[in-house]
Amino acid sequence: LSAPSHLGLPVYSTSGFDLLSILARVANRPNPKIVLGPVDMTCAFTVVDVRRYDNPIVYASPTFCQLTGYDEREVIGRNCRFLQAPDGRIQKGEPRRFTSPEAVGHLRKSLSAEKECQASLLNYRKGGQAFINLVTVIPVVGGVHGGPDEADEVVYYVGFQVDLTEQPNAILQKLRDGSYMVNYSASTIIPPPAGTSSRRTGGLSTHAVSHDLRSLLARPSFTHSLPLSTTANAVSTASNMIEPSPDAPHPLNLVLLESSPDFVHVLSLKGSFLYVAPSIRRILGYQPEELIGKSISDYCHPADVVPLMRELKESSTPASSDGQMVPPAPKPVDLLFRIQSKAKGYLWVECRGRLHVEPGKGRKAIILSGRVRDVPRLSWSSVYKTGGLTQSEPIRYRQPESNGHEVGEEQVLPTRREKEFWGLMSNTGTFLVVGSGVRDVLGWGAGEVIGRTVGSFVTPDMREILEGTLRATSERSTEPRIVPCQLSTKESGLVNVRVVLYQADNVSSPFDLSTLATSSSQCPIVCQIKIAEDPSSPRPRSPYTVHSPTENIFEELETTRGSSWQYELQQLKFSNQRLSEDVDNLEAELASSPAGAPFLPGAFHPHANPRARSASHNATDSEQEWRLQREGRHSSHSGHLKRPWSSLGDVPRR
Q1: What is the distance between the terminal CA atoms of the chain, rounded to a whole angstrom?
Q2: H-helix or E-strand containing 575?
Q3: Sign of the alpha-carbon dihedral angle for 282, 287, 288, 293
Q4: What is the CATH number of domain 210-241+249-373?
Q5: pLDDT band at 186 (very low <50, low <70, confident <90, very high)
Q6: How far is CA 13 from CA 4, 10, 19, 42, in A?
Q7: Cβ distance 434 to 649 under 8 Å?
Q8: Which CATH class for the 31-186 domain?
Q9: What is the pTM of this model?
Q10: What segments bear the compositional bias annotation Basic and acidic residues (predicted)?
């Protein structure tokens, strides 16, 4: 994974393994059974992939290698059992002669059930030296990418180790359930790189930093040339720090806070800014000192203030611990609202973080990272040119007998199967956002598709054609482009589709993206992928047009909209719930009416209960209102709410 910074520096690890995300999922797991102490990149830990045979190690931290004496190349691809023998040679299922078989059995049984576990057992370093290892293994939920579609999927186990022989003080507390809270980060101290002062490396692990950036940070000429903000109110350069204190921030921290495309900020529980990173200057145009002490509601769109402040208030309530003997984990905070920039009006911003409680003092604050979200503009006329929306189809089935033969009448499920999905792509074809319909079309979850290129789903002969069409579309093409092709499904099959690429009318950004090392996200492309029985046949025309051709598909996300789509969505859910209850009552009344008697909505039925009669009148009113809307007229009492939507991947079908 490569995440270039604003200055084009290689910030993230070049290994391609997102360890910080995995450790974040470990620290923020919803219902922990074992209380972990401090967890960071200085811990001795390994990551195993449970999808592969024999659960091989796919990552071993440098501290783990120092603890065990094995090089990384000697560890990757092996099962962790090699630590249970002095010579490192032990086969799967072989009786344990050099360590406790009871402890090994406890670990195996717990991991088979995907449960957190902890045990102390005798392990051996390279060369045969024995040590007492307190092992804590955490199954990591969230699949590969941590997306909502993989919320319950376990792909990785993270095993933390601490040498109780050398670090007996690492145990912080024994809990009532018999487990231990351990300071894993204190297990081994890694010496700083040669030529690097203790001030630069103090308090910061650089194991997840690429070698190139580490080399740059070790050069005084490089760090002295960077304009760094040491506080929220002052800007200085590293050369101005004549006698820096031992507690001075690491230059890497200052570079990230200054150059990140996100802005880190700290809020009080009432929404006041306590800290704002200096990157806010480029993103929203404000100086950090302009925001300190002011409320976030002063800069929030008036229609978004209520849900924003409600979310901040609820963040101070800890999550339920489900009766466990461990303290509940803080709730994650996820905010999406419109914020007033200094020069470009309102912008959509997404902020994610969590509640922080200062140790020993109990003071609370919410630490967040905010990112501006660009919203494309696309007219319905472009969609009509390519055949419009593809209607979903009902799901039909027959109830089988125990012998497997299909019997009975065909039934229709209340849910429907989507035949298309929408999304956003970079101009290199990487999926940035996809709708939930991707599961019906390709079988993949949204989290499994995001981050992959569309070229990885097509045959090699079509890949060049698709990539060429993407390049042509990214050059501000005004006309949509269609590529008939076959995409691979999760079940290793192929499905005929039409990939429709739209260049958004305008995609604005709060800062100059040309300064980034890569420009793949400058002009996101809106894509529509729809199932086609025969990809070579002429595209079908839209069966009907409901929207004005000049209307914006994403009008619910326009920053000038006077209402909140979150409020509209809530009201629409209430309306749909009432309609569902009315339909149930009408069906119940229809079932109880005498055989052969006609049932007229709105008519008086002597056997109908008052709620059913009310439902029938509501159904009649709804039918009349629908007819008026189809004729282009609106009744005086018709609702003004239109269907809002919360994702760029789900196009409204009002």
Answers
A1: 39
A2: helix 565-592
A3: negative
A4: 3.30.450.20
A5: very low
A6: 11, 8, 9, 15
A7: yes
A8: alpha beta
A9: 0.57
A10: 624-634
